[in-house]
Amino acid sequence: MNRPNIWAEGQEIIFEDNHLLVINKPAGLLVQGDATGDEPLSKKAAEYLKFKYKKPGEAFVGVCHRIDRPVSGIVVLAKTSKALSRLNEMFRDSLMTKTYWALTGKPPVPESGTLVHWLVKDTIRNVTKAYPEKHTQGLRSELHYELLGPAANRFLLKINPVTGRPHQIRTQLATGLGTPILGDVKYGYIAPLPDVSIALHARQLQLQHPVTKEAMTFVAPLPDAPHWDPARELFC
């Protein structure tokens, strides 16, 4: 049986133990299956575990959170039902620190701050609208941002979302700061990137291990894509 061409340990696989599988997801890959029928990360993970451990049946893979298809970076998968249950609680209650990096076409003004909006998801069009005031159908959404500096003719921002709403970072940067993310034409950027990704990367995740209770920090290397090269050279 040949090894599936899925991931290489130390590259896409950031961490693995008996309970967790932490992946540096490439842009363009779904985390969980949808109506497109495209093979998602969860299925690739199950194939990887089945091969690695020579499992006769299906491997257990639990999805406790997602990042958007065009976004790259850290995704934590559960290998046991115990880990999945506890991770679901942690993500629901925001009991971890998430850090994203984003490239924009212009710097934010001010260079650091907090954004609060009420987000309303249009499930038909798959877009989210941000309202600056309380909205009866909206979910309160908060993030902190900071300009790390220029990266060639782009600007690198660090974002720490307090809440985890669909398209939250994308719509809050575009609406609250007028700085849509590089390549994100859905939220106002002028043109797509050649690989149809957007320059948003789930860079770091800090959490308590759901079983051992150990404090853990995961860091995902930036994608091997030309638009990330200046940020990689200056900030990594």
Q: What distinguishing features does this structure have?
A:
Pseudouridine synthase; disordered N terminus; RNA pseudouridine synthase; 33% strand; globular; PsdUridine_synth_cat_dom_sf; eleven-stranded mixed sheet; 236 residues; alpha+beta
Helix and strand layout, with pairings?
Layout: E1 13-16, E2 20-25, H1 41-52, E3 62-63, E4 72-78, H2 81-92, E5 97-104, E6 112-122, E7 127-131, E8 139-151, E9 154-161, H3 168-177, E10 200-208, E11 215-219, H4 229-235
Parallel strand pairs: 4-10
Antiparallel strand pairs: 1-2, 2-4, 3-4, 5-9, 5-10, 6-7, 6-8, 8-9, 10-11
GO molecular function: catalytic activity, acting on RNA; pseudouridine synthase activity; RNA binding
Protein name: RNA pseudouridine synthase
Organism: Hymenobacter coccineus
Structure description:
The chain is built from four helices and eleven strands; from the N terminus they run ββαββαβββββαββα. Strands 1, 2, 3, 4, 5, 6, 7, 8, 9, 10 and 11 form an eleven-stranded mixed beta sheet that branches. It has one domain: Pseudouridine synthase. It has 236 residues and is of the alpha+beta class. A hairpin with an 8-residue loop joins β3 and β4. GO terms for molecular function: catalytic activity, acting on RNA; pseudouridine synthase activity; RNA binding. Keywords: Isomerase. It holds the Pfam family PseudoU_synth_2.
Percent strand: 25-35%
Residues in helices, as a percent range = 10-25%
CATH H-level homologous superfamily name: Pseudouridine synthase
Number of spatially distinct domains: 1
Shape: globular
What is the first-to-last residue Cα distance? 38 Å
GO molecular function, one term: pseudouridine synthase activity
Organism: Hymenobacter coccineus
Domain Pseudouridine synthase RsuA/RluA-like: 19-174
Pfam family, one: PseudoU_synth_2
